[in-house]
Write a structure and sequence with these properties.
Layout: H1 5-30, H2 58-62, H3 77-99, H4 107-132, H5 137-156, H6 162-185, H7 193-206, H8 209-232, H9 245-271
Length: 272
């Protein structure tokens, strides 16, 4: 696929619009509200948001991050996740087609779509965990189903051996047990049960134990850096919890892209 700036910009803008929709979808579903009908509204004063105040990213900048009526600060998670979803779409257009490409006839179409959907479901988990400290079970279940179906397609097309799926299931279950132990030891105060459930699909996505180790290490490392930054900036207390699901997803994404390179670099480091 040849790169085109007009297409890249269009794909990015489409992604930000999808991110805006996902924000509304998660917010209303967590509150059992109708997410199909009804205009968007301010979460504080419940004023209906005009169409020109609902343009992804641009409206937030134009309104200087405040509601036009009550002047309450708009949750910065809105533009952040719009930007994140736009970046996901842009990555999918620029690089995703090449990174996960296979030779079987069905996979050149299926693989890019699979990773795009996985990215969108992961973003819904990030939104829910940041906003409500909840990891929706439906999103976790969807990740598990999609990943297992995808792995089965890889086996049927000869891109993957059946034994590899069994090994990835084993490593994923071990990861779940480790997370369950952490949840049990901390009594759910610093490690949620949603993180335990999320470990299964993330382990299946990573597949090998090396990638799983790298992904979890990155998640804890980034989570620790962000947590300490929040404590030192006095935005969080030392004993206050922060959502860990987003860091698990970020660590998984980084390990999917650079996991083997980081593992090889680690082996060279301990071997020198």
């Amino acid at each position: 696929m040849e790169f085109s700036w007009p297409i890249a910009i269009t794909v990015f803008l489409l992604g930000t619009a999808v991110g805006s929709f996902l924000n509304v979808l998660v917010y209303r579903m967590l509150r059992n509200e109708d997410w199909i009908r009804g205009r968007s509204y301010c979460e504080t004063c419940h004023k209906q948001i005009s169409w020109y105040e609902n343009i992804p990213i641009l409206s937030y900048l134009w309104l200087k991050g405040r509601c036009s009526r009550c002047q309450t600060l708009i949750n910065p998670i809105h533009p952040t996740l719009e930007l994140l979803t736009g970046a996901l779409f842009l990555w999918w257009y620029v690089e995703g087609w090449q990174v996960f490409m296979a030779k079987a006839w069905l996979l050149p179409i299926l693989q890019p779509l699979f990773w795009l959907v996985i990215g969108l479901v992961s973003i819904t988990i990030i939104i829910a965990d940041f906003r409500e400290m909840i990891i929706p079970r439906c999103s976790v279940s969807l990740l598990i189903i999609l990943t297992l179906l995808y792995r089965l397609v890889l086996i049927l097309t000869g891109e993957m051996q059946a034994v590899d799926l069994w090994w990835s299931l084993l490593w994923s279950l071990i990861l779940v047990l480790v997370f369950f132990f952490l949840w049990w030891v901390t009594k759910g105060k610093s490690f949620g049960f949603g993180d335990v459930q999320l470990a299964l699909p993330l382990g299946l996505l990573l597949g090998s134990w090396q990638r799983i180790v790298i992904g979890i290490w990155l998640a804890f490392l980034i989570g620790a850096v962000v947590g300490l930054s929040l404590v030192f900036s006095k935005k969080k207390g030392f004993r206050q919890s922060i959502p860990f699901g987003p860091f698990l997803i970020l660590g998984t994404a980084l390990s999917l892209r650079w996991g083997w390179q980081l593992w090889e670099a680690y082996l060279k480091l301990i071997g020198s």
